């Protein structure tokens, strides 16, 4: 039996699956690295995404920079050489794609206007979902209360520890309960990207029955690529650019059938 290379799922609205809406999807570690840079070739990525798109769709992507920058586009050409962390569109022939490996993939869809999009949300980009939803309102007239949001597999608080400075940043800017001290005498804190993003969505007024979150921890499960797990044995003095070549980057997307 061929090894599973990706999974797909649905958006939910008021706790009901939207069978007639777009599908969310994400590659698994078995699919290989989906690393993307404008100045690089990645045959594994190109082959997989070409198969995913088929004849009726077109891939649109940005080179990630761990930001809150979101692009609203009608064609893939508009993103040529662009850097950012989110894509929204109304064009059903497009497949917005971002890459993740511990950071949170956030899938969004507003059924009334048909706006859908794909976001990459690491610690620096936490809050990008607000930028995307507000941009969708400005560009397409999408209403906040209609949005459906899926938060995909990412590194969970069981494996994600941060220092006091970063913990304070999240306590102040998101919600105090998204961080907790590892132990009474520890200077490290466990960070929940899920709780931080839920705080953003609640503040916006998104219906909690239209929010879905996956429980998988990418660092715990060998099914997923993970920056923390896969680079933990590398020499500590290895620079970040080199470290980034030693883990399995995954692609996450939203696609109409």
Uncertain regions: pLDDT < 50 for 5+ in a row? none
Helical stretch count? 6
The backbone outline, from C-alpha atoms, is globular
The radius of gyration is 18 Å
Which labels suit this protein?
alpha+beta, six-stranded mixed beta sheet, five-stranded mixed beta sheet, 6 helices, 21% helix
Describe the structure.
The protein is of the alpha+beta class and 257 residues long. The chain is built from six helices and 16 strands. The chain starts with 5 loop residues before the first strand and ends with a strand. The model has no long low-confidence stretch (mean pLDDT 95).
Outline:
By secondary structure, this protein is an alpha+beta fold. 21% of the residues lie in helices and 26% in strands.
């Amino acid at each position: 039996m061929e090894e599973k290379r990706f999974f797909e799922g649905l958006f939910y609205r008021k706790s009901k699956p939207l069978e007639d809406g777009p599908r969310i999807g994400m590659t698994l570690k078995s699919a290989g690295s989906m690393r993307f840079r404008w100045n690089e070739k990645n045959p594994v990525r190109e082959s997989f995404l070409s198969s995913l798109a088929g004849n009726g769709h077109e891939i649109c992507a940005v080179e990630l920079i761990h930001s809150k920058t979101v692009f609203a586009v009608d064609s893939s050409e508009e993103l040529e050489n662009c850097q950012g962390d989110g894509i929204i569109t109304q064009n059903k022939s497009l497949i917005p794609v971002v890459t993740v490996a511990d950071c949170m993939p956030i899938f969004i869809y507003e059924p009334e206007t048909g706006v859908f999009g794909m976001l990459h949300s690491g610690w620096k980009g936490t809050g990008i979902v607000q930028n995307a939803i507000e941009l969708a309102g400005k560009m397409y007239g999408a209403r906040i209360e209609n949005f459906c949001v899926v938060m995909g597999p990412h590194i969970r608080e069981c494996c994600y520890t941060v220092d006091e400075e970063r913990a304070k940043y999240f306590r102040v800017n998101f919600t105090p309960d998204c961080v907790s001290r590892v132990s009474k005498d520890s200077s490290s804190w466990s960070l929940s990207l899920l709780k931080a993003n839920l705080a953003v969505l609640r503040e916006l007024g998104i219906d909690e029955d239209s929010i879905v979150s996956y429980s998988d921890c990418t660092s715990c499960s060998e099914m997923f690529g993970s920056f923390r797990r896969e680079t933990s044995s590398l020499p500590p003095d290895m620079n970040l650019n080199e470290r980034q070549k030693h883990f399995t980057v995954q692609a996450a997307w939203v696609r109409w059938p």
